[in-house]
Structure formats: structure tokens, C-alpha cells
Amino acid sequence: MVFEGPHGWTEWSPFLEYDDQEAATWLKAAIEFGYAPTPELRTKSIFVNATLAAVAPAEVEQQLDAFGEFRTVKIKVAEPGQTIEDDLARIRRVRELRPSVALRIDANGGYDVGTAIELAKQLAIESIDLQYFEQPVKTIAELAEVRERLARIGTKVAADESVRKASDPLAVAEANAADVLVIKAQPLGGITSALEITNRAKLPVTVSSALETSIGISMGLHLAAAIEVESFDAGLATVALLTDDVCDEPFIAKNSKLEVKRAVPSENKLAKLAADSERVDWWQERLKRCFELI
Which of 7, 10, 95, 208 has its CA 20 to 30 A from that of 75? Predict the structure, then answer.
């Protein structure tokens, strides 16, 4: 759902399976971005990373080419039905094709502790350095164990799901379970809330997207531009993964950067991509329920 407030267009896009309580947090973010002024920006553009899905090595080059030039790539691993050898083959292919880019891998909590350690050690043996290993395991306790063991080989651990889906987003930092926090504006209730979390956690961060349109990406860019702590290249280039977008000029990175600005959808794209009446009713009813919660 996209709508326009006095400060510009905003987006509410919690995943369909989320319950109303979780979706309401995302709604807080959408309302804030449309109806409240954004914090002071510290930069006019943001460096962004490419994102590689869990594809076969033969498909890696084509997927990466869609992002043009970039200096960092996030590689998905731990895909259901795949093996650690599949993951290693994908990572090796990226290193072969782009020897100078920084690599980060993301398991979305899909490994157990032993497998996460095994993968990281094998990459270290092959001198394939990682910027960090994102959400290798599910729980905060497991993250803390993996972080302690990977510190011995110099591999950093980042937390994503353990931050954005936790009742207490600061629990990861308090448990010393991560070196980096992955921050997303909508899941954390908006830019103001996300900034408060980063300032209190006192850890480096990566601002990332939740597969929004350019309007949602604009919210993420404003967050990234207001961050005061150390930050890595943002995971905000995901419009390149979409089939279409609501803007005539989608937020596609040029020379590894995105400009920090508001997105304005086109009437033609809104008409073309409009949901059917049943789905519109579903979203409007969801909106009423979630608005009552906040």
C-alpha cells in the first residue's frame, strides 16, 4: 500500500503472512515518513551493495550484471534444498568474477552452529575474506556462540532477523551476539525509532530494505543518510530485483550509489500495477485493524 502525506509519498508493505501486531509496527514507519519531517541528513547519496540470490554458479554473472558497478555484494546462502557445497561454489564464482569487491554472505538464520562455522572456516582456508556473515543462525544464543568462535579467524557476525523481528531489538547488542546490526526502517517502526536503536546499540550498522518499491527504498535512504554511527554500504539496491516499480524512474543504483530523495509514483504505473478489488479490500481492512493498534 502506498499513500501520500504532507511530506511526500510513503509505503506500507509488511509481508502478507505477518500478524496485525507486527504489521502495525511497519505502519508506524509509513505514517511517520509521510506525515512527519525527516531528520537532518548527513549526506546526499548512499553507497549500496549488490544482492545475489542463491543461484547456480552459471547464473551468477547475469545476476550481478543487473547491478552495474558496485563495490560490495551480499550473497545469499543456506537456501532450503541446497548444500554447503552449493554455497561455496556460488561464493567462489563471485570472487572469480569480481575479485576486488567486498563480500558479505547472508544465511537468514538457515544454518546450525556447526555448519556456519564450517563454511566460514573453509572460506578462511581459501583466503576468501568476508566483510561479515549475516544472520548465520536463528537465535541470539546461537549468534553469540558463532560470533565468539568466528572471532578467532577474524570473521564478523551481523544480525538481521534477530533485530527486526525481536521484541527487544537491542537484545543482540546486550548479549554481545553481533559485530554489526542490519537495520530496516519499516520493521523497526520508522526512521526515528531505528536511529534511537543504532545510537543506543553503539555498533556499526548496515541499512537494508525489505524488498520495497522505490517509495519504501526512499525511506531507507533517508534513514541511511541520518545515521551517526559507523555504517557499511546499504542493502538498498533491491529495486533491481523487481519486475516493475511504481516510479517511471526506479531507484536503480548508478556507480554504486543512490541519491537520497523522495520517490514519486506515476499515475500510469499505479494504474498498471493496481491490485484487484478483492486484494484492495483486504489491505484496507488490514489498515483499519493495524491503525487501531497504534
Answer: 10
